[in-house]
Amino acid sequence: MKTITWVKMLASGGIMCIGGPALIYYVTPTEEELFLRYNPELQRRSLERRQEKQEDFDNFVGRLKEYSKSDKPIWTAWEKDVERRRAIHNQELVDAKRAEDAEAEARRQEIKGSIR
Questions:
Q1: What three-state secondary structure class fits 9?
Q2: Are 67 and 74 in contact (CB under 8 A)?
Q3: How do residues 31-75 score in pLDDT, each as one tens digit?
Q4: pLDDT of 7-39, one tens digit each?
Q5: Full-prediction pTM beyond 0.85?
Q6: Which parts of the chain span the membrane according to its record (predicted)?
Q7: Under a CB-based contact definition with an 8 Å cutoff, are residues 76 and 84 in contact?
Q8: In sequence order, what DSSP letters do the residues of 18-35 get, joined into one string?
Q9: What is the 3-state secondary structure (H, E, C) of 92-110?
Q10: Which residues have a Cβ under 8 Å from the Cβ of 98 and sit 6 or more positions away?
């Protein structure tokens, strides 16, 4: 009696442990099958953006590799890089604003000179 119970338990455990993932693998569609289910407009947009997405991913992975070279945790290096990029971006905005202000002042001076 105990042997039969153990055999049933092992058989049902084997079916669940092997059959479950096998069933999931069988019913999950591949990327190509999903792509073919898209409507033509989505397929066209996906193909157009594929290169851009790949470049973004490559840049992301490259930055992660760069961050991993540091002895600090990746998230710390990531935060420092974000701060550095933000500072660069802010400086660019300030420089652009100064250039616009200088151009506006030059126009004002030109208008003042032409009125006199």
A1: helix
A2: yes
A3: 889 888 888 898 888 889 999 999 999 999 998 888 888 888 888
A4: 999 999 999 999 999 999 999 999 889 888 888
A5: no
A6: 6-27
A7: no
A8: IIHHHHHHHHSPPHHHHH
A9: HHHHHHHHHHHHHHHHHHH
A10: none
